[in-house]
């Protein structure tokens, strides 16, 4: 019995072997990595993590999202805090989030945030600072949310009647996917083809058939469950999409962003593996628990649960795929106890979420609470981003963006009005 018990007890060597094998499979499945060297090292785990490329790491920002206003609270606040850190420690008071990332991916409310922070304004700089974007969404959330129909984005979409709403038109004018300062990925689900569709700047640069108005892209990614689909066309009218929310199929776009970089040799020629990446993934915060009452969950509750569950699965899969680089190259910020949906003051709730201890995915052991808080991890992300930013200034470019033609349209004057009004704090 004693020997049998000892045989059944998992050993450290077994765990290491499982780790190596699972990392190989995850990299093969998620990112198309097919390096035979990985298989040679399965029996003997490396003593040190693989070194990053001499060209530096590609910096990826990924923002979870959905159709509820609360989905943007944690990410928006975290981005505003991150941008303040970047300005302080880089010595550049005009620094923007887009200056420190090479690609942004966002779904639902996260897609709107990514678009606001990476779309080019009339002066060639991003339309909004992170603080401006966060305060604009938060301010309109409290003004437009109604009983039984929570959420700025859902309200805006329903009011628009299937077309790009006044809100998004006021923000983006006639800007398209090409009018971004860095590559962006924003998903939706296309009912016409019955498959997920990812709006991509890289595709928009290639052909007019994949270039869309940014205001319609945002309406598509945050289209609420149960609402009419967003009918939209590419700028040349050739591609038609009947879109519903990206949060339904890709609540957490991190895996899509990583896959895009590792398989895009034209723009990211030095990204050979996860060791060449630096990923900051921002969660949407903890949802309102659906099981507190005896009443069965509604369809909206089930959609919400499915989105949060899918986001957690992607988080764990990506963390495992990063393997030994997980603790140095993959940073996940997610609330773990503060329900942002019930918060009267979104800023206070987001502060509480950043003060919480961070939750980290661990191979074969689910998730664990770490010693560091979300806020501390955000500061660590700041150091990594500034270090990478300074390091690559005198070296070979890590990213070679596809050349674009002259921007098709300039953002309307309405955009400048909204941005300046937001920065001054007036209603």
TrEMBL record:
Domain of life where this protein originates: Eukaryota
UniProt keyword terms in alphabetical order: Hydrolase, Lipid degradation, Lipid metabolism
Any single GO BP term: lipid catabolic process
Keyword Cell membrane in record: no
Protein name: Patatin
Domain PNPLA: from-to ranges: 61-258
UniProt key word Plastid: no
Domain commentary: The nitrogen atoms of the two glycine residues in the GGXR motif define the oxyanion hole, and stabilize the oxyanion that forms during the nucleophilic attack by the catalytic serine during substrate cleavage.
Biological role stated in the UniProt entry: Possesses non-specific lipolytic acyl hydrolase (LAH) activity. Hydrolyzes phospholipids as well as galactolipids. May play a role in disease resistance.
Gene: LOC120108629
GO molecular function: hydrolase activity
Sequence similarity: Belongs to the patatin family.
Broad class of enzyme this protein falls into: hydrolase
Ranges annotated as biased composition (Low complexity): 406-427
Enzyme Commission designation: 3.1.1.-
Biological source species: Phoenix dactylifera
PANTHER family: OS03G0784100 PROTEIN, PATATIN-LIKE PROTEIN 6
Region described as Disordered: 405-427
């Amino acid at each position: 019995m004693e020997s049998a018990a000892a045989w059944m007890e998992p050993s450290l060597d077994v765990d290491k072997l499982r780790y190596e094998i699972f990392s190989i499979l995850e990299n093969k499945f998620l990112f198309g990595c097919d390096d035979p060297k990985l298989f040679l090292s399965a029996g003997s785990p490396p003593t040190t993590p693989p070194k990053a490329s001499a060209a530096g790491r590609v910096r990826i920002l990924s923002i979870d999202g959905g159709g509820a206003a609360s989905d943007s609270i944690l990410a928006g606040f975290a981005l505003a805090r991150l941008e303040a850190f970047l300005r302080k420690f880089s010595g550049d008071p005009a620094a923007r989030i887009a200056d420190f990332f090479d690609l942004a991916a966002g779904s639902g409310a996260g897609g709107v945030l990514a678009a606001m922070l990476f779309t080019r304004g009339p002066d060639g700089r991003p339309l909004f600072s992170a603080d401006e974007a966060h305060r604009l969404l938060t301010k309109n959330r409290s003004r437009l949310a109604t009983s039984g129909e929570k959420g700025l984005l859902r309200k805006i979409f329903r009011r628009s009647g299937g077309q790009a709403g006044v809100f998004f038109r006021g923000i983006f004018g006639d800007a398209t996917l090409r009018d971004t300062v860095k590559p962006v990925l924003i998903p939706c689900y296309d009912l016409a083809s019955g498959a997920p569709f990812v709006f991509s700047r890289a595709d928009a640069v290639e052909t007019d058939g994949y270039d869309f108005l940014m205001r319609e892209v945002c309406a598509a990614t945050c289209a609420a469950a149960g609402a009419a689909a967003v009918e939209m066309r590419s700028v040349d009218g050739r591609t038609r999409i009947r879109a519903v929310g990206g949060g339904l199929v890709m609540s957490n776009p991190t895996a899509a962003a990583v896959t895009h970089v590792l398989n895009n040799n034209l723009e990211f020629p030095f990204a050979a593996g996860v060791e060449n990446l630096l990923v900051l993934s921002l969660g949407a915060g903890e949802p309102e628990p659906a099981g507190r009452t005896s009443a069965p969950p509604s369809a909206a509750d089930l959609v919400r649960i499915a989105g949060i569950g899918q986001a957690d699965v992607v988080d764990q899969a990506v963390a495992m795929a990063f393997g030994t680089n997980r603790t140095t190259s993959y940073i996940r910020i997610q609330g773990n106890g503060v329900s942002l949906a019930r918060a009267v003051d979104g800023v206070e709730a987001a502060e509480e979420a950043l003060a919480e201890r961070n939750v980290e995915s661990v191979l074969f052991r689910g998730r664990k609470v770490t010693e560091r808080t979300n806020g501390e991890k955000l500061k660590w992300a700041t150091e990594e981003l500034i270090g990478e930013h300074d390091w690559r200034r005198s070296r070979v470019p890590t990213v070679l963006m596809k050349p674009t033609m002259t921007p098709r349209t300039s953002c309307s004057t309405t955009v400048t009005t909204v941005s300046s009004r937001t920065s001054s704090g007036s209603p």
